[in-house]
Amino acid sequence: MSDFEPFYDVNRTYEDNYERGPFGEFAEALKSDTTQGSVPHADENFMGVPVNLAFGIPAGPLLNERFTTAAFRMGFDLATYKTVRSRAWGCNPFPNVLAVHPRSADGSLTPGSAELDEGVLADTNYEQPISISNSFGVPSQSPDAWQPDMQAAIKAAGEGQLLVPSFQGSRDPGATEEAYIADHVTTARLVKETGAQVMVMNTSCPNEGHNRLLCHNPLLVGRITEAIKREIGDTPLMIKLAYIPDDGALETMVRATAGLGSVQGFSTINTISARLVDANGEQALPGAGRERSGVCGNAIRGAGLNMVRRLAAIRERLGLDFAINGVGGVVSPEDYAAYRSAGADSVMSATGAMWNANLARDIKAAR
Ligand SMILES: Cc1cc2nc3c(=O)[nH]c(=O)nc-3n(C[C@H](O)[C@H](O)[C@H](O)COP(=O)(O)O)c2cc1C
């Protein structure tokens, strides 16, 4: 695998990837004008928008229009534009990605397990089945840069393909809840102005206090999505959830959002937080506040499937019809099938796609 080059090159900075990427097979795909592995028949949908196969890449490794266009050409019919904000926002220092090596034989990490606090080995030894950690801090260009680029990305989708914009609110230290809600509404409006047909709001971002995520406060998420819905009208809104262990808390989230009509779908899961250590047991990522970081890829598939099953059960019990987008550890066609069986209407892969640019074609060939 020494000559293997993921389309997002983990050995380069975020800025370098933004300016010069994508790399490897995605760079080759950009040189040709044809979409590979896509048939011009939309027989599935993503929150009501017809698509060929409801499979693609979630928010993260597709930094701009060149990345999303390359993803479309490689047969990923859903390409998510990396999370944008209402203003320019810097990236955490390099490195932003490390390989992680959980102790279990199958490489899985279970939410709530002691290993997540004791430390998981992280280094630059990337192995299949791939698990990594990513630590970016959700950087964003300013809207002056990302709005025209997102508009071009939307236009570059082929037949039966859909550009999915992702956004989140930004909270200044000491800012009021009202200001935080208003920033979400502003960002959603900026996204809508690009011509977006759907949008995904990230709620797995830090809220107040360390390790407290916005999605741990369902009532605040409910207030935010209600305010956004007033701004964006009929445009379908999906929210991205981190793993939520408690069934009661998950149901409260569903009732406060989809139950009130402000949300049409859930995308889950985001990364699972773990303490990362090097071979000497020292902090693996350099710098303050980076003792813990989010793990994704093979290690978190069990947790992702578990969230999708529980959401599907709540959907059934409450008689609601929201969409479920299954994310987390999809590295093979079998993993894609497992998410569909668990109740996902669509499926996405970030880490798995980075280490196999042909994943969408493999899944289509296996169907
Ligand atoms: C390089 C990278 C960057 C990411 N950046 C974002 C982001 O900006 N916004 C977001 O909601 N999720 C982000 N994620 C999380 C993914 O969307 C996804 O939820 C997570 O990686 C689990 O999927 P996976 O196991 O297929 O990687 C990122 C993931 C990766 C690998």
From TrEMBL:
KW Cytoplasm (keyword) present: no
InterPro entries reported in the protein's UniProt record: Aldolase_TIM, DHO_dehydrogenase, Dihydroorotate_DH_cat
Any one GO BP annotation for this protein: pyrimidine nucleotide biosynthetic process
Keyword Flavoprotein: yes
Biological pathway: Pyrimidine metabolism; UMP biosynthesis via de novo pathway
Domain Dihydroorotate dehydrogenase catalytic residues, every copy: 171-356
Keyword list, A-Z: Flavoprotein, FMN, Oxidoreductase, Pyrimidine biosynthesis
GO MF annotations, alphabetized: dihydroorotate dehydrogenase activity
Cofactor field: FMN
Domain of life: Bacteria
Gene Ontology, cellular component aspect: cytoplasm
Alphabetical list of PANTHER family matching this protein: DIHYDROOROTATE DEHYDROGENASE (FUMARATE) (PTHR48109:SF1), DIHYDROOROTATE DEHYDROGENASE (QUINONE), MITOCHONDRIAL-RELATED (PTHR48109)
Name assigned to this protein: Dihydroorotate oxidase
Natural source organism: Bifidobacterium oedipodis
